[in-house]
Amino acid sequence: MWRFVHTGVRSAAENMAIDEAMMTAHARGLAPPTLRFYGWREPTLSVGRFQRAERDVDFAALEARGVAFVRRPTGGRAVLHDRELTYSLVVAEGHPGLPAGVAKACAMLSAGLLGGFRRLGLDARPFGGGSGGDAPAAAKHAQANAAAGPPSPGQASAACFDAPAEYEIVVEGRKIAGSAQMRADGVLLQHGSVPMELDAGLLHDVLRFPDAERRRRMRAAFERHAVAINPCLRRKGLAPAAIGDLEAAFLAGFAELLGVEPEPGALTAFETELAGRLAAEKYGADAWNLRR
Fold first, then answer.
1. Is 232 a catalytic residue?
2. Which is nearest to 128 in space by CA: 120, 119, 116, 136?
C-alpha cells in the first residue's frame, strides 16, 4: 500500500524536514511508502547537499529580493522554487519493481512525471529517448547529482535546470523537471521541482557570477535549456494550467507508474514531531544551510 500526502504550502525548512522525517519513519516501519506533494510559502532558493553556498549564492541579493534559502538533503545544484508543484517519493530500496542503482531508479520513477506531463497535453519524453537507465551518461550524471557539488561559476552554471540528464524529462528539447535522490538506512528519497513558470531573471540575480557578462551568458544558456509547463501550453494554443491541474495530472501519472492508487493520508504523529525538530534544529539553522 502506498500513501499519498499533500502537506500544502510550507516554509523551506519545514518542506525539507518533512521529507527527511518521512524517510526515517519508513526506515523504522512506522509509515508506508509515500508520495507527497507540496508547495513553498515564499520563493526559495535550495542548494544541493554538497554545494558551496558561499561561492554560488549572493545572500545580499536573496534578502533584497525576498527569497528564502535552504540546503537540501539531496545532491545537485541550485533550484528556485516558486510557481511549481514539488513532489517527493519515499520507498525502501528493496521495494518490488524498484531497480537497484541511482540512475535506473531515477529513470523508473521519472515515468510518473512523464505520465503527468502527457496528461497535461505536452509532448514529453526522456532526454535520452528511452528509459535512460542503462546509459553510461545517465549513470555518471545521477551519481554526481547524488554525491557531488556543482562546477565553479567560472566553468558552469550553479543552477540545476541548465541541462538534463538522460533519464530526465524534456519538452521541446528542454528540461522541464529537476529531480534529486538520496538513500539512507535502506530507504530512497527522490524529490523534484515541476515548474508552472520559470523566472530566469530572479534565479540568476541571486546566484554569484564573476561579472555581469558571465551572468548574462549563463542566463541565456539557462533559457535555451530549461522550460516550464505554461509557456509550452501557451505555444500549443492551450490554456495555462493551474496548480490543481498539475496535482491531478501527476497523481494519476504516479498511480499508473506504481500500479496502485495511493491512499490519501496524513503525516503520522511521529513524522510531525520529528519534522518540527528537524525544521528548527537542522533545516532552519546556519550550521546546516551554510556549511562548507
1. no
2. 136
